[in-house]
Amino acid sequence: MILRRNxxxxxxxxxxxxxxxxxxxxxxxxxxxxxxxxxxxxxxxxYAVASGVPPSCGLYATIFGLLAYALFGPSRMLVLGPDSSLxxxxxxxxxxxxxxDSQRSMALAGMLAIVSGSLCVLAxxxxxxxxxxxxxxxxxxxxxxxxxxTVLFSQLPALFGFSVKGEGLLIESQSFVAGVLAxxxxxxSLALGGGTLLLIGLLRHSKRVPSVLLAVVFATVIVAxxxxxxxFGVTVLGPLPRGLPxxxxxxxxxxxxxxxxxxxxxxxxxxxxxxxxxxRTYAARLGDRIDPNQEMIGLGAAxxxxxxxxxxxxxxxxxxxxxxxxxxxxxxxxxxVGAFTVAVLLLAAPNLLQNLxxxxxxxxxxxxxxxxxxxxxxRRIYRMQRWEFWLSMVCLAGVAVFGAIPxxxxxxxxxxIEFLWDGWRPYSAVLxxxxxxxxxxDISRYPESRLIPGLVLFRWDxxxxxxxxxxxxxxxxxxxxxxxxxxxxxxxxxxxxTSIDVTSTDTLDELDHTLAKAGIRLCIAEMKDPVKDKxxxxxxxxxxxxxRFFATVGEAVSCYLKAHxxxxxxxxxxxxxxxxxxx
Length: 583
Prior knowledge:
By secondary structure, the chain is mainly alpha-helical. The protein has two domains: 2-375, no CATH class; 428-581, STAS domain (Transcription Regulator spoIIAA). The chain has helices at residues 2-11, 13-19, 26-50, 55-72, 84-98, 102-125, 137-159, 169-181, 187-202, 211-226, 228-231, 257-286, 292-308, 320-326, 333-348, 358-372, 376-384, 386-402, 404-424, 469-481, 502-517, 529-538, 540-544, 553-563, 571-581; strands at residues 80-81, 315-316, 428-433, 440-442, 455-460, 489-493, 521-525, 549-550. It has a six-stranded mixed beta sheet with strand order 4-3-5-6-7-8.
């Protein structure tokens, strides 16, 4: 029976959590869930509106995403929902394809959630939870800063009480400035949105005061009390649809397949990157251990369910999770309670926020976008390694100029180039012996080091593969030509070489023949067994012979000195001689 239950506990961590639930946690989870719902409601609406879909989509995604993650997600603290980091990605697909049709925008957003969710589930099942680690920190910062600026500028027109046409940060910013200069600003809307933004900013460090809810309620009450919607032209949210949606596949047209697939891939990558970082942070804080593959499956399941219930793509929230934690949350029951509370609101009081001004929602989104911007750590990176800082700036510019979807493609391309460059042009060194220092060291770092006559010790600090094989051969030959004495042996210190492919094996074979014609014996020291196994499989190990492979560089040197009596006294041998001669 135990063997039958284990798979279920692995794929459905929520069931395992129920089996180990403590009654003492119930009060904490109930209170935290009610407190969390105060934030889930306005934020879910705000991000949906900013993403170009009806506000109800944000609430549907919140409700069903939280319920699905409670069952499939491994973290007992994480809160999922619509997030500012996904706004620009969703808007970049929905806005041009929907052409203002709300039903079509809902279908596109739902399909994006299903595509991104399916990709996450497949990747998690294939144990690819490590893929987000392929993006370096500077590249992630550049991409997220670009997203934050894109979201911020997309919400400025709504904050000022008017709307603009166009896509992308540059076009939207130009349209916004033109609108302001043309006198389209609604002063009352700006005051409401600016006040919302200011209040959230003032209370952003408070863990007990729900700043977003407080700001939204104030704005709604002011609009309703003073009748600002009809008297001063303030655009408001309007009533939400009563009830909950039925399960439905949000079919889209065949012309939408490519952009939806590309958008779904980008959303999956960004949402899992955010979720995995936040999940690891809270796991370390709580002393838990999180499986990144199951985290990917949990995120994917939440997006799949959200998409089937007319929601938009979701991610882990760095703003709502701390609310749950501060309210005393113990398990995912907190998210379940929050989801049911929002559902009850849709069923019983859908008109509660009908006077909520759109400019206030813009203030909520702008506050979240500002929180995404990273400056302090980029300053540190600038001081440490400027070329990585400028990589970050290139990613930011890519998002700003080309948009969110091409921007993430650029970020991935830069990450691949960065990885290949490190392996394509790695460091290498000729090694010498330094008196009084153990081992063999880079002669460029230790100018006082001595070279053994007739022996070149060459170290290659990277895997050997097709992109750097020719460079490896060129640098070996350069080391031979630069030797002050006639070379008899060349020993490659291969301890940093973690892999080798067919191309580099053939290059190594050619190098061996070239050196042999010059009367030079090619040997290899400190090669790892898995790499050596590849040479055996490729046939080069037997061709070289086992006598040309040494466990250490020191062993290779000793063997060389036995085969070639040269004018050389090692400093350690000299110390022994001096000690023996001492009275």
